[in-house]
Amino acid sequence: MFIKHTRQLLTLFFLTSQCSSGESEPSPVNSFTIAFGSCANQGHPLPIFDEVVKHQPDVFLFLGDNIYGDTMDMDVLRNKYQRLGSKPSYQNLKKHTDILAIWDDHDYGQNDAGKHYPHKKASKKIFLEFFEEPKDSERYQHEGIYHSVYRRVGEKTIQIILLDGRTFRDDLIKWTDQINRPNRFFYHLDYAPHTNQTATLLGEKQWAWLEDELSKPADCRILASGTQFGIDYNGYEAWANFPHEQERLIQLINKTQANHLVALSGDVHYAEISKFEHSDCYPLFDITASGLSQTWKFATPNRNRIEGPIMDNHFGLLTITLSGSRPNLMAEIWDIRGNQRVEYTIPFHEISFSKE
């Protein structure tokens, strides 16, 4: 632990202060640390934020369900954000690191909601104001909250892509035959995969923007998604309910030759790492941290799981080492008691189209 915290102190000393969007000046260090998590109930004291601060991350990334709004009343939604923002632990987090955020359904406004949620424009305004999005941000100029930010570390560039999986998403399909569900599912299935190839998760405007983003130069790319990308179908909300959209993302990464990309996700109230393999792409790792305050009674079957599940309250930590003989990403899960529960290193050469 002494070595780890010494490294983090050196990182904090050398890394220049950076704003919430756009590129910063180069930093003399060769690593960058992102803490991340999701599912934070505003009625909970959220001591997990104090654990995050101990690790001195360069950025904390909220991955959705940042509050449990679940309302058609925007005053109620705004007040729930205010409850989160007034917590001493949140103020401590805000004081010590930059904060980035996307949303998922509960902070969007309604459980499992998509494009038909009637208050999405008002909800977006509340979201952006709470997270103090700069007024010149492109997020104010288009529908939805998708966005990207860049961080410079020495001569290297990290691209953080913030997806919106709610504003444009078509309705899900209900699973109707509980009696004849596959044997591997020991629980009630909510949704079935789409067979309609026109059903969308991201929407055409966001897909076009994403292609443009993946075509830009970057030495490492972080794809933030409120719902999991890398799992196989489990009957709950996930990219697996839109298998053609999963395929579209893989083919887009292939088309743009966007190397060194990993996904971060939330939603499910436990932590795991999934490895999504496809013949047209390098493995896409999906690191899920979901349980800043929430827990769940079981983890669903996931044939792509390579680490976890961790069922206690936790946060994720991603250390990106960009130079030296072995550039890599080290993913960790830390629980509420200060225990490291997962450590998994992904070498850059494993997530690249080229031989490095």
Counted by DSSP, the helix tally is 8
Mean pLDDT: 93
Largest sheet geometry: 7 strands, mixed
Spatial strand sequence of the major β-sheet: 4-5-8-9-11-10-12
The count of β-strands is 15
Bulk shape: globular
CATH superfamily: Alkaline phosphatase D (PhoD)
CATH topology: Purple Acid Phosphatase, chain A, domain 2
Elements, N to C (H/E): HEHEHHEHHEEEEHEHEEEEEEE
How much of the sequence lies in strands comes to 25-35%
Our count of domains comes out at 1
CA-CA gap between termini: 31 Å
> What CATH architecture do you see?
4-Layer Sandwich
Structural class: alpha/beta
CATH top level is Alpha Beta
Low-pLDDT ranges: 1-28
Radius of gyration based on Cα positions: 19 Å
Query: Could you estimate the helical fraction of the residues in percent?
Result: 10-25%
Protein described:
By secondary structure, this protein is α/β, with parallel strands linked by helices. It has one domain (31-351): Alkaline phosphatase D (PhoD) (Purple Acid Phosphatase, chain A, domain 2). It has 8 helices and 15 strands. Strands 4-5-8-9-11-10-12 form a 7-stranded mixed sheet. Strands 3-2-1-13-14-15 form a 6-stranded mixed sheet, with helices on one face. A two-stranded antiparallel ribbon has the order 6-7. α3 runs parallel beside α6.
